[in-house]
Design goal:
Structural class of chain B: alpha/beta
Oligomer: heterodimer
Radius of gyration of chain A: 17 Å
Distance between the termini of chain B: 40 Å
CATH class of the largest domain in chain A: Alpha Beta
Distance between the termini of chain A: 42 Å
Number of helices of chain B: 14
Strand content of chain A: 25-35%
CATH topology of the largest domain in chain A: Sufe protein. Chain: A
Shape of chain A: globular
CATH architecture of the largest domain in chain B: 3-Layer(aba) Sandwich
CATH architecture of the largest domain in chain A: Alpha-Beta Complex
């Protein structure tokens, strides 16, 4: 079939694993929104003794890439300790799926973020979180590494699209080396907002394009 | 598997009619000369006669005279030619203001944006919940500097028809040129330029079972239009380049083959499918219930995303289209669904079905059954729409 998706992606898309809700979940998360086109919910059951994920389930509103990644991360995470699961990256998920088209990597990132957010949710609920770290240029840069350039499937930082980052008084300003009429300008801007806005001490995110 | 394939994306491309292909063949292998002047060799003169005949056939279908019809490479070029040609002809004289609707297809919309960068002012007119232009807003938008109004005959996604006679009358009254992109309505919805005061009309062959790569622009006699692609003196010195004779012949043959009976048959299929689709819970029709293309159905389904629907339908042998961002080349949700006041979710869950000559009434039941099933499955794994 001349589809852009690998056999493994299509297999997970057709028959997603671990779908559904855990009614008495120990932690859960929802990443994305109907507005952005992809949304994933992750539910966890955790063994309090050894902090191991005894069950992981997901629900997805999204494209094939989102559904398949949601499916694969539940397989990757199940049985791992929280610390081990925290180390799962979007790259690993993508590799486990036999690769994803560049334009679809952001959907994979969203699903992995869902898993990470659910783990964080567990840690917050169970007093496992250390002190809240104030947002710095480095924190922002690290988050921008999870915003993908749909043309290449690589992140903004690696493809040198981030010209400058400023953080002051709760305002984060990100300057991109990208014209405002670029094919993906609106999409990239939205992704940046989604990644930076949830930071606890950020009130406002400004994305600037070149003219 | 393609024997069983049901193609419902006829607004993107249609299958070439075998009779069109037969008509085109001699102009690849026998009469392959370019059209020459009357002083050329016989083969070239023959090519010219054939081109003239094809032009006359298509012009007649629009109620135009042959000299008013310019062959182009398709509707993208035609609309570029209309907007940029008028801008170049009048931008330095009359004014630099253009009016377009917000839900135009990309050839018009992006030509308007390109002109904006050249210093033209563009007003983007709003549409109502069905996609119909607000005529009062149009009247207000026209200024003494306005040179052109471009409003589509029918929408590419939701199929809504515009009142071209009323829009044309306003333009006439205010002395402004009127272009319409009739790519999707050509021959399916009557348009006679002797009755409708329109100055420029974009049409194409590949949506009426003709070949890709050939289209045309109707240019009312006396319409100021600058030549913007330089070269030879072809097409009344408005469009340079060796003529696409097989394309022109195929286009004309395709025009001859469309009948009102066929269009009526497509409309019956449309109504049957819409009726079936709206039985699915949380579904809604996009576009106007009656003032719509006879061969277009567009429905949004809540809590599910279009690309997933499309892929599942593909695996079951149905080709459809969606306004979802995930499916678009810019990852942006359909500007048409957003333009009629829909939110992103409605765009992401929108599915477009467009019919053609080779579809059968049974296809409608088959696709309705398949999509009901697909949507039920996708809703089962969706975090939305529960409780």
């Amino acid at each position: 079939m001349p589809l852009p998706y690998s056999e493994i992606v299509m297999e997970h898309f057709r028959h997603p694993r671990n779908v559904g809700r855990i009614e008495d979940a120990d932690a859960k998360s929802i990443e994305g929104s109907p507005a952005c086109g992809d949304m994933v919910a992750v539910y966890l059951k955790v063994d309090p003794e050894d902090l191991r994920l005894t069950d992981v389930k997901f629900e997805s509103y999204g494209c094939a890439s989102n559904i398949a990644t949601g499916s694969i991360i539940t397989e990757l995470a199940k049985g791992k300790t929280l610390e081990e699961a925290k180390a799962i990256t979007w790259k690993q998920a993508s590799e486990a799926l036999g690769g994803l088209p560049p334009i679809k990597t952001h959907c994979s990132v969203l699903a992995v973020d869902g898993l990470q957010a659910a783990i964080q949710n567990y840690e917050e609920r169970h007093g496992l979180v250390k002190e809240r770290v104030p947002t710095t240029v480095e924190v922002v840069r690290k988050r921008l590494k999870r915003v993908m350039n749909p043309l290449t499937g690589l992140d903004l930082v690696r493809t040198k699209l981030v010209k400058d980052i400023e953080v002051s008084d709760g305002t984060v300003r990100v300057e991109l080396d990208l014209p405002s009429d670029h094919q993906f300008a609106a999409n990239i801007q939205e992704e940046i907002m989604e990644k930076i806005e949830p930071l606890w001490d950020v009130d406002k995110v400004v994305v600037e394009f070149t003219e | 598997m393609f024997g069983e394939f049901v193609y419902l994306d006829n607004a993107a491309a249609t299958r070439l009619d075998g009779r069109v292909l037969e008509a085109m063949k001699p102009y690849f292998l026998e009469t392959y000369a370019v059209a020459t002047s009357q002083f050329g060799y016989s083969l070239g003169i023959e090519a010219r006669d054939v081109l003239d005949a094809a032009r006359a056939t298509i012009a007649r279908a629009l109620g135009a005279v042959p000299e008013e019809f310019i062959f182009t490479s398709g509707s993208t070029e035609s609309s570029n030619m209309a907007l940029k040609g008028v801008a170049m002809a009048l931008g330095g004289k009359k004014g630099r203001h253009i009016v377009v609707s917000r839900i135009e297809d990309f050839p018009v919309l992006h030509s308007a944006r390109a002109l904006e960068k050249q210093g033209f002012q563009v007003t983007y007119l709003d549409v109502d919940e069905y996609g119909r232009l607000d005529l009062d807003q149009l009247r207000e938008a026209i200024t003494p500097q306005t040179i052109l109004v471009s409003a589509q005959a029918a929408n590419q996604e939701i199929g809504t028809l515009q009142d071209l006679a009323a829009i044309g009358a306003i333009c006439r009254e205010r002395g402004v040129l009127f272009h319409t992109d009739a790519t999707h309505s050509f021959l399916r919805v009557p348009l006679d330029v002797r009755e409708v005061p329109v100055d420029l009309v974009t049409v194409t062959a590949h949506l009426i079972h003709g070949p890709k790569g050939v289209g045309g622009l109707y240019v009312r006699q006396g319409t100021p239009l600058a030549k913007w692609m330089d070269g030879g003196f072809q097409e009344f010195n408005l469009r340079a380049g060796s003529e696409n004779i097989p394309g022109a012949v195929g286009f004309a043959r395709a025009v001859e083959l469309v009948t009102p009976e066929e269009t009526a048959r497509l409309q019956e299929m449309r109504d049957r499918l819409i009726e079936r689709l709206l039985r699915i819970p949380h579904s809604r029709l996009n576009g106007h219930p009656t003032l719509r293309l006879p061969h277009n159905a567009n429905v949004s389904f809540r809590f599910v995303e279009g690309e997933s629907i499309l892929l599942h339908l593909d695996m079951r042998g149905f080709a459809v289209s969606t306004g979802s961002a995930c499916f678009s080349r810019s990852l942006e949700a359909s500007h048409v669904i957003l333009g009629i006041g829909g939110n992103h979710e409605r765009a992401h869950g929108s599915v477009r079905f467009t019919f053609g000559r080779f579809n059968q009434a049974e296809d409608m039941d088959a696709v309705a059954d398949a999509i009901s099933d697909v949507i039920e499955n996708l809703r089962a794994i969706s975090p939305l729409g529960k409780e």
